[in-house]
Amino acid sequence: MPMDRRRFLLSSGTLALACLLPVPSLAKSPVPNNLRSFDLTAGLASTNLGTDRTFRVWSYNQGIPGPVIRVRTDDVLKVNFRNKLPHPSTVHWHGLPVPNSMDGVPGVTQQAVLPGDSFTYEFPCKPSGTYIYHSHQGLQLDRGLYGALIVDDPNDSLTHDQDFVLVLEDWAMVDGGGPEAGKRKPAGRMMHGGRGMMRGPGGWSGSGPLSEPVYNAYAVNGRIYPHTKPVKLKKGEKVRLRVCNASSSTIYDLRLAGHSFTIVRTDGRPIKPVKAEVLRIGMGERYDLELVADNPGNWLLGAYESGWGESGLKLPFVYEGKEDIKPVAPSFRRGLAYPGYFDFQAAAPSTEAYQEPARWYRQVLSGGMHSPYWTINGRGYPDSEVLRADLGQVVRLAYINHSHMPHPMHLHGHFFKLVNPSLPPEKWISKDTLIVDPMQRLEVQFLADNPGDWFHHCHHLYHMEAGMANIVRVA
Ligand SMILES: [Cu+2]
């Protein structure tokens, strides 16, 4: 970690100079820092999600999702962002611990980029993993402003034959959903994307102007079934699936018919491989899965429906020569291998000495029942408490969910470790987004090693906009 930090400091702003300085981590690497430039333009576009209905969206480079940005850990990524939208916008690099001024949160880390203006994001790409980039302005993500960011480690000895990025998104087919969607979920009804099939029924939706739209289409890489682009397999192949949940308010339970898979990373961080038949993935979470193509056929990856979906998420996995077979949907039943966070442990035990937290913060998550507001400790952003930490301190956050909905809590600028009382601390998993279920208490802790004001919030977009956010100030 100290070495990474050093590269961060050297690289930001003084790139030319940094290249001339002896940096220990570079000495080991055969390839020097590469500056990789991308142009990313946010603008108005239209999409049909593969169907015959067209509606307006906001997108990056006219695509839904935006282009996959793929770089290496020895790269410095430079993104020339242009805002051609009629509203201010920013780009956030979800999960990647970038320098604070590059984090893309309007009013916190930068002024929003005005219509017609540009902004240059530039940062080192560490560590390796699967990330998402998206607008952090208001509800813009729900209009289509998101894409995948993949960071490869050139020293990784990856053995898979194919590598697929699957970006999941919830849509309302009438008007695209998002802030202008006409249909809203009523208060006090069960919602799709609630607690999941084996964890009991769903929660309650909010009431008031910020309640979420009714989604009726679930897209993979911008297309809905049967128009989704199939994953094509050959028997015997080993496949890496990078699943990114860019949805605004949908948690999925995913299963691939005819197969189990192995979970190898969560939020970009490697874990000890875990066999699974169902994957639960919340908004903002990413999972890397390994799949062995050992069962020729035409199989669907599907999501469990808990009440609202009219057009469920489905994606065919088709073996060579099996294109004409009718696709088989997965069945969901009790007793499937459905690992949770406490079944995971770090791939390699941490070598850092364990530090007791210097600061503790209770984070009570509530709202929704009789109020349009969602809060942390009873307060909504921007009136919420600032969580302070000195640079280098370890901070413990104790989430206590007093509401009836799950909240995927996300911290910017850092990975946190999930406190797992049944494991020694060096085996705790690292994440940046963690689902806290209704009435559940979960604790995380992190080393405050990235200075600045960092946004910390629920990744349910409508909860975030209704106040469930605060600032972590590392100084
Ligand atoms: Cu939430």
What is the number of domains?
A: 3
Sheet with most strands: strand arrangement = 10-9-12-17-14-15
Largest sheet: 6 strands, mixed
Let me know the number of strands. Answer: 30
Fourth CATH level, the homologous superfamily of the largest domain:
Cupredoxins -  blue copper proteins
**Tally of separate helices:** 4
Q: Assembly type of the shown chains? A: single chain
Task: Classify the secondary structure makeup into a structural class.
Answer: mainly beta
Shape descriptor: globular
User: Ranges with pLDDT <50 over ≥5 residues?
Assistant: 1-31, 187-209
Approximately how much helix is present in the residues? Answer: under 10%
Query: Span between N and C termini?
Result: 18 Å
C-alpha Rg (nearest Å): 21 Å
Beta-strand percentage range: 35-45%
CATH topology of the largest domain: Immunoglobulin-like
In this entry the ligands are: copper (II) ion
**CATH class type of the largest domain:** Mainly Beta
The name of the CATH architecture of the largest domain is Sandwich
Average pLDDT taken over every residue: 86
